[in-house]
Amino acid sequence: MTLAHDLAQDLAAIAAEMASRTDRGQPADYIPELAAIDAKQFGISVCLADGTQLSAGDSATPFSIQSISKVFGLAIALGRLGDQLWTRVRREPSGHAFNSILQLESEGGIPRNPFVNAGAIVTTDAALGHRPPKEYLAELIGFIRTSAGDEDIHIDRAVARSETETGHRNFALAHFLKAQGNLTNPPDLVLGAYFHQCAIAMTVEQLARAGRFLAGFQRLIAPERVRRINALMLTCGHYDGSGEFAFRVGLPGKSGVGGGILAVAPGRASIAVWSPGLNAQGNSLLGTEALEMLARRTGWSIFG
Ligand code: GLU
What we know:
- The two termini are 23 Å apart.
- This protein is an alpha+beta fold.
- It contains 14 helices and eight strands.
- The longest helix has 18 residues, at 3-20.
- The protein folds into two domains: 3-64 and 202-218 and 226-298, Beta-lactamase; 67-200, DD-peptidase/beta-lactamase superfamily (Beta-lactamase), CATH 3.40.710.10.
- It is globular and about 55 Å long.
- The strands form two sheets. It has a five-stranded antiparallel beta sheet, sandwiched between helices. The chain has a three-stranded antiparallel beta sheet with strand order 3-5-4.
- A hairpin with a 3-residue loop joins strand 7 (260-265) and strand 8.
- Glutamic acid (GLU) binds at residues 66-67, 98-99, 117, 163, 170, 198, 256-257, 282.
- Glutamic acid (GLU) is lined by residues 66-67, 98-99, 117, 163, 170, 198, 256-257, 282.
């Protein structure tokens, strides 16, 4: 039996198992546009090193990638600033919620990592430079389209508007960062770019393809930068649930409050899952379980 054949069976079994679950978590409701989403949906897609792609469930339904966009934003910021970025944001797990304000004040306005909201706002500011947000967003969308090999990837303006109207915690973070001298652009401008990048909509099929550069199948950025992004995904990609995700799944992964997760088995697979219901840490409940099942069935793990 070929690997693809086994994998097709694994994905079908995982999708069937997830369809039977009654505890599906809660879709994010702090962004009104995301609150109404049907929690019954589940999709998974896997790209392998030989170019094969296999999917199951609602794999062609676009969803809001939210914080998964921070991975692509980080790649662009590192491309512009290189290691200088690390003078403005650290590389430590936070142990706090994704939108926590507490730690930022006690640590002098230097966010713990580029994946908590405060760190992503600084990273977006760095990636923006002195360009208009439109130019940065065009570069970001261009990068994602190239990595996915698909031009049909867009920003969902309704989601961006919804978060702009209600994202008061992010405004608080951005203004505090500005007060501490860790934003070069005005807070509103940076948040405009940040909310629009979070509002990019993709299917798991597109997202799994977009992650191929992190699995080492596509060279879009330097390999040592890929390794570092993967390290940050493993240690910080699930906020205060990162340790649990590493323990259960054993792969670098980045979640978003839209219910998506992008995970990478370096050299083997790029995997995207989506189910809108979240656990207490704001990570997809069934997405995490599906990845745990997949890792167990395939043996994929970075820990041997
Ligand atoms: N746009 C979301 C926020 O800033 C992203 C959070 C996430 O996906 O974890 O609150």
